[in-house]
Design a protein that fits this description.
Order of helices and strands: EHEEHHEHEEEEEEEEH
Distance between the termini: 9 Å
Number of strands: 12
CATH superfamily: Class I glutamine amidotransferase (GATase) domain
CATH topology: Rossmann fold
Strand order of the largest sheet: 2-1-3-4-12-11-10-7-8
Number of helices: 5
Strand content: 25-35%
Shape: globular
CATH architecture: 3-Layer(aba) Sandwich
Largest sheet: 9 strands, mixed
Helix content: 10-25%
Number of domains: 1
Radius of gyration: 15 Å
Length: 204
Amino acid sequence: MIALIDYGAGNLRSVHKALLHLGVEVRRVTDPSGLEGCPGIVLPGVGAFEDCSTALISQSMMEATRQRIEQGTWFLGICVGYQILFDHSEEFQSNSPGFGHFKGPVVRFPKKPGLKVPQIGWNQVKYIQPDCPIFKDIPDNSHFYFVHSYHPKPEDTSIIAGETEYEIPFASAVWHDRVFATQFHPEKSQSVGLQLLKNFVDLI
């Protein structure tokens, strides 16, 4: 059983369908009680960091999810669900907190002539930790689908599992213990994305 946190994110349905396609039993969770008995958590996300933070706090899910992560529950964060693992975001100069599980800010791509922000479309992920379990059976430099204007800057670079170039290199995936997160959308990344989700499920 995987807990899929439902705080109103636009891509929740596509993540749900992808997990069901893999034969996974999924529980859509809107309050802390829904996490009971689930060895794995997936937190999807589309939109603003502040909206995600505010919604999770209003559902009492911020602290409950943080505690589950600290207790060793398998966790996969996607897009804003990745960013929320960090301390805070520069988006809208938001004061809304993240989980603070990883140290570092979430920052905007630099303003440069010709650089389109948000990044929308396919881009490559170079493996920094080739032994990262969610990359199993996925070739290095595979293309995944991105939609974002902001990205985390981990203070501890040892957690960076994958890196992507978009005018600058940025951490497009992280991994530490049982916590995985991606800036890209595996549920929109066709066969390689399904393989990544399968790898996460297999770990559980």
